[in-house]
Design brief:
284 residues, alpha+beta, 4 helices
Length: 284
């Protein structure tokens, strides 16, 4: 795939620059900045007074060890209940000069906002009010059937813990089911460390999914990794995850982060009440 200088510059800005490195105490992988806008409370203030909120999407298995489940005595329920304890993770955003030269990165603490183990998706919120210029563009919701096999793709991630790098391939499958979940496949090379990274359409540079799995074959006592058979969580599942976790503001300007946070809090409180109900409540 031959690219002009103009096209390469666009790939840097829309593909490479929004990709970040995600780390926990025991693991690491990749993430992608999918939202960075002023908070609802400061959006009408002068630019130098605005506070921004920034969200990153990654894989659940990248940040899984930062999610703990602990036993806690409840004086209300009069029994031990299991509660979730989400630890902070680290997100490294990289800086570039002369377009392509990576000169380092800045690490931010991030909160785990939502996660889904089965879909293998998680969304993080950076603990900073800084504005991030480079944000990925999501492929339009509900238009996934127009993404045909053979479309050129770009995968970008922190392969083997390296700073972000991108590879080029094609979309080759949209029907694979692994553990009862749909995955798409593309031939842009990926390897360990790419998990949580991004797959884009090469012609429009729109985000179409989360790099999640690589193909590996057991050969005797060794494993042969097929780097050009990369499975990723499709954009359809990404939108389902955002909707189920009240994160619609990320793609729909009709919602605000405040509204979504209130809806999410209400849902969490409803779920929390169930934990505190006596175990024999409702039994006859």
């Amino acid at each position: 795939m031959k690219l002009s200088e103009k096209e390469l510059k666009e790939i840097h800005k829309k593909v490479l620059y929004p990709v970040v490195r995600v780390r926990t105490e025991k693991a690491g992988g990749t993430g992608l900045i999918i939202y960075s806008k002023p908070t609802p409370e400061t959006k009408d203030l002068p630019e130098d007074e605005k506070e921004y909120e920034t969200y990153v999407i990654t894989c659940h298995h990248v940040i899984e060890d930062a999610i703990k489940f602990v036993k806690k005595w409840s004086s209300i329920a009069k029994r031990e209940i299991t509660v979730e304890d989400r630890q902070l993770v680290q997100v490294e955003v990289f800086k570039y000069e002369k377009l392509s030269r990576c000169i380092g990165g800045t690490t931010y603490q991030a909160e785990i906002v939502a996660w889904d183990k089965e879909l293998d998706i998680a969304v993080l919120k950076l603990r900073t009010t800084e504005k991030f210029k480079y944000v990925a563009k999501l492929y339009p919701k509900g238009q996934e059937d127009k993404i045909y096999l053979g479309r050129p793709t770009i995968a970008c991630g922190c392969s083997l813990g390296h700073e972000p790098l991108f590879t080029i391939g094609h979309l080759v499958a949209k029907h694979d089911v692994i553990e009862n979940k749909e995955y798409w496949m593309n031939t842009a090379n990926t390897i360990f460390g790419n998990s949580g990274g991004a797959v884009f359409l090469a012609d429009t540079l729109e985000y179409i999914g989360v790099t999640a799995r690589i193909t590996a074959l057991q050969l005797g006592f060794g494993v042969d990794v097929i780097t050009w058979m990369g499975f990723f969580v499709p954009i359809t599942s990404v939108y389902n995850f955002l909707d189920e976790n009240f994160l619609m503001f990320i793609y729909d300007p009709n919602y605000t982060s405040t509204q979504c946070a209130e809806m999410r809090k209400k849902k969490e409180e409803e779920e929390q009440r169930k934990l505190y109900l006596p175990e024999d409540l409702g039994k006859s």
